[in-house]
Amino acid sequence: MKNKKQIILIILAFLLSIILSLGVELLYFNKEVITTNKKEQAEILNTENIEENNKDFLATKNSSITIRVPDKVHKLQFEYESEENFEWKVEYTAADNTKVELVEDSSNLINHAVRKLDAKTKEIKITFLSDNVKIKNIEINNEIYINWNRVLVFVVAITLFSILIIFRKYFYKRLDKAFLLIAIPVGILFILVLPKTVYTSWDDQIHIKNAYTAFSSETTTFSQGLQKLQAKDELDQKYFQTTEEKLELYDEINKLHKETKDRVIQLNNYSPKYNRLVYLPFYVGFKIADAINLNLTTGIVLAKILNLLCYVGLIYAAIRVSTYAKKLVFAVGLIGSNLFLASQFSYDPTIIASIILALAIFLRQLELEKINNKYIFLFILCIIWASLPKAIYCPLLLLLLFIPNKKFESKRQAVTVKALAVIIAIILATTFILPFFLGSVAGDSRGGNTNASAQLNLILHNPIAYALLQTKFFLTDAPRLLLGINTFMGVAYIESMLTPLTQILYLVSLVFILRVAFQTPLDKKIITNKIKIALLLALIALWLLITSAMYLSFTEVGNTTIEGVQARYFIPTLLPLLLLLCKTEKNPKEEKNDKDIALLLIPLIILIAMVVMFIYKGCGV
User: Fold this and answer.
1) How far apart are the first and last CA of the chain?
2) Quick one: 138 and 43 in the same domain?
3) How many C-beta atoms surround the C-beta of residue 390 within 10 A?
4) How far apart are CA 440 and CA 456, in angstroms?
5) CATH of the domain at 108
6) Last residue of a domain, which of 287, 302, 317?
7) CB burial string 333-372: b at 16+ within 10 A, e below
8) Axis-axis angle for helices 574-581, 348-367 (nearest 10)
9) Which of 22, 419, 420, 555 is 20 to 30 A from residue 69's alpha carbon, by CA?
10) Could you list the residue range(s) of the whole structural domain that residue 259 is in?
């Protein structure tokens, strides 16, 4: 009976969330137009240097059109034709007699300009700052517009909060289920709200091509729509400032993709195919979309969802495997940076999740009286998966050396497993180190005076200077890279649009994760000083490999600092770092407190706040 009442409460909360969301959308976001709700053709008062032909206007540089406004204008919009991107200027006198002047940009990829003004004025002057722009259908749009993404965010947020509060005892004891409840719907919100294009997350213009052509070597089909996605200048945010413009952009890209889907391009991609296995979730998503003839932007959404599910599945398994560190794995899995990357074109989240799962398995093996062969196999597989695209993480395999021999069935098994770990680590390390010695790594493909072989030669001839460089870099940059804002709130190319809001969420995230770490008790008999030394050595090894990789391939020859090092490379080290901060007890007891609702709600609050920021700042549609 009690569960029945709780389910009824959830249904009521869901229905109430829909009503509230629509109410807020109408009464707050459409308050300026709720009484008018109409769109009308603009009345032309006069033109300057404009050639008029049957209600169409041909604009030249510095020509203008002045229109009459019926008291107020919510949105100004017009259709256009132009062979090039162009600038135009809006001028009007506001109700308080202040002069307003806005310079806008429009793209030649679409044919519709829409700008939100929310101004009370009597007339507007539109000046075109470029030549050969054909204008028609200038309109004043005072219609109600429902942003369904915004409505969906409110519905999901209210529903999730209700479920977590009502069933808090259940989810507190089953953090794996709580993780699924939060990560999947919020991750999908990230995908739907953020752009269905690229230049959102780091290097996603490269990743989308690698994902679509993952297992092709020389030639492959690659549409003009996909090529347009990689043209950064053409997809600049300044050209597509409103939802209407972004939706029209998607339509144009989908049209180009459909018309040129069979276009063949030369790849000359001779990198090993095992390096591209990490793109498998994206690749499968694109293949399914092509097989059932979905448009390109829907295919992008599907590819991202499969990558998100891959990340979620790995973290879910890590929470299930964990015992004492369960809360810590839960908290790290829901870090804003991780979910943001998992919802975009990036293979970093699957690397991060694989390492988290491997570490959870390692801790679990230390707790068991006898090792589980399936766990050992899965541990090795996770590290291999993470190391195929980035071999710098392979030293984590050596953690197996610190499992006591008595936990194996026999000394022979212990030697065999540990020798296998060393051999695999050496093989993986060779794929990273050998190309530098052979001179087959030229440097950063994106440009700059980089030369990996020359940089390696410099290190070998000046080891002390390089050691001092590493020490200086660690002392000055370790805090921001290990526990900085981009560790918890790294939102890549759209970060500048969100500051200073991200600063607040970062501080909340940092305090929350440290609170969880300090309150997580570990068994002193299991997490011995030897194991802590092993984790510390792993951290040092990863630090040196990550920074060395960037010094070799990204830093200009002879530079006295290390360039290109980003916090996302160090997120896999966050869990072992936090484990070192956990308290150890002789007989730790599982915490029975089921009223720590903050453990469930704070990550959700942070993630929902991120989605709201994306919408509020116009980062996506």
Assistant:
1) 42
2) yes
3) 20
4) 12
5) 2.60.120.260
6) 302
7) bbbbbbbbbbbbbbbbbbbbbbbbbbbbbbbbbbeeeebe
8) 40
9) 22
10) 204-302
